[in-house]
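**Sequence, structure tokens**
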Amino acid sequence: MSTTTLPARAKSSGPGGSRSRATGGKKGLAKALVPFGYLSPTVILLTVLMVIPIVMVIGYSLMDNVIMKKNPQFVGFKHYSDILSSESFWTAVTNTLFFTGVSVVAHLILGLAFAMMLNTDLLGHKTKAIFRTIYVLPWLFTVAIIAVLWRLLLEPNGVINYLLTASHLAGSQIEWLGSPETALFAVTFINIWSGYPFYMTSLLAGLQGIPGEYYEAAQVDGASAWQRFTRITLPQLKPIIISMALLDFIWTTQQFALIWMTTGGGPLGTTEMLSTFTYKLAFTKYQFGAASASAVIVLVISMVLAFFYVRAQKARD
């Protein structure tokens, strides 16, 4: 018995089929746009708070008589040329490098020393808790409190001078923040005192994450305390140290509040930093174009430092 096979009926491509495909396409497009909808508030905020101000500052740096007059003049890179040839700018750069370099190195040394002391088994839990509280105290104060506190301590009739003269270490009262010879060292010391707890807490967490078996095996092999420190502790802490040092370098180069509240960049510009130099151009001399050019230079420096920080973070991961 033969079987007859009927040809399959062609699918209808009428209005109903086209409508379903169009609806499916719209749903797919809407689904693809969902992630962008979640990202849009962040993108809008970044654009309003970062991109637009940066573009405006770059534009101001190429103009003269901005903000103060209605018709600013385009001067190109004149402000950049004036700033880079200014002796005051290079003084601020030198002071910033000294202030930042000494602060970062001292933060690392003090933070590592205190972290290792708090991580040792030679101290009891109560003793460690007491020292941990004392060492973290500088981190609990705001910049304003730190500035006022140290201005009182370092004034000519303050506690520091009293102790020095009473112990015959100084023959007369010293103007720590008012003398060109000591002002930069004084503000650097204040910044070191206020910043080392950041290193201490981070390095203490890193030390507590190093397995004790490493030290036990090294001790069995006859390694000295210095060898254990240089061949176990430092290599294990190296990623943390690099990341913190770069981050601290970025923060310290942008330090403004502490300098402004203690010395204001004086005396005679001996504590002038890039931040205070830019601030004075804008709000003391009202040279907003030159101040914008200085701000762009600082921004470029910060971006270079941020690049190395991100690179170090990727290497750490």
The mean pLDDT is 86. The longest helix spans residues 15-61. The CA atoms of residues 274 and 294 lie 8 Å apart.
